[in-house]
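Bench log. Compound arrived from synthesis this morning; before running ITC I wanted a structural hypothesis for how NAP sits in the protein. Inputs:
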Amino acid sequence: MIDAQTQVVGVLGYPVRHSLSPAMHNAAFRHLHLNWVYLAFEVPPALLADALRGMRALGIRGLNLTIPHKESAVALVDALTPAADAIGAVNTLYWEEGRLIGHNTDAEGFLRALRAEGCEPSGGFALVLGAGGSARAVVYALKSVGCRVALANRTLQRAQALAEVFGVEQVFPLQRDALSSLMPAVQLVVNCTPLGMEPNADTMPDVPLEALPDSAWVCDLVYRPLRTRLLKRAEQLGLRTIDGLGTLVHQGALAFEHWTGIPAPVPVMREALKVANGV
Ligand code: NAP
């Protein structure tokens, strides 16, 4: 029941009405009988600074940020965590001794999602597809645990720029022929492009999965649909797969834990996401 004691958290985005985060977090609050509520606020880019001042004034306990606010928030917080600083994007805001901290839970959320399925990237070799915002977080995460990384992107210059920032070993165009000699050494493929996402669910990255070793993992960040064409193809080949809901739930779980100080009920959050995602 919402009353005068209710603690408020939420997400700022523009647009934001598609967000699955309220369903995920409110399910967790209900499950733990916490008098907290998670709301979605549609904030135009020009009003982000006002919204963050309002957050302080209203005592909002924490926020998530989504498109288009993740990068602009970097300049609006009192301090950045090392992850947010390196990735250049903030997806979670929380208070620490009165200071507004800008954090990024995407990288750690991705690692938790891998490990929850039994995939340990430390010391391995991964092929990351894409060079946008999510690829930045994934590459940062993999490099932080000592995984060697090859990056493949449609626009080669963008991959080269990202590779320079994070010390990525190899860069390729996102084309089957360019990648075939690399594949036998790859232990993990991560799709960080929107290929395969509805309404283009019949597409997939042009990658020779059949050349991967039998023990390789294929992870897709796309979560709508849950079983993407890429994951179905990997399953047909007998490869192990990880869907995009894993990263989504674990980045949310980490934000939840920063705000409440309580371990997040991950299975409850994942189930709520599946229902909200229509699967
Ligand atoms: P982004 O910053 O816009 O980057 C998109 C990347 O995909 C770019 O490298 C782009 O290549 C490439 N790309 C786009 N269309 C392509 C096409 N038709 N063919 C080949 N490459 C293409 O996007 P993002 O934020 O990284 O998100 C990427 C995907 O990950 C989205 O589907 C998003 O929903 C999903 N995602 C999931 C989670 C999760 O928690 N599961 C989190 C974040 C994102 P160019 O450089 O050539 O343009």
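What the model suggests: The mean pLDDT is 97. Residues 130-135, 153-155, 158, 174, 192-195, 197, 221-223, 244, 247-248, 251 surround NAP (CB under 6 Å).
ITC booked for Thursday regardless.
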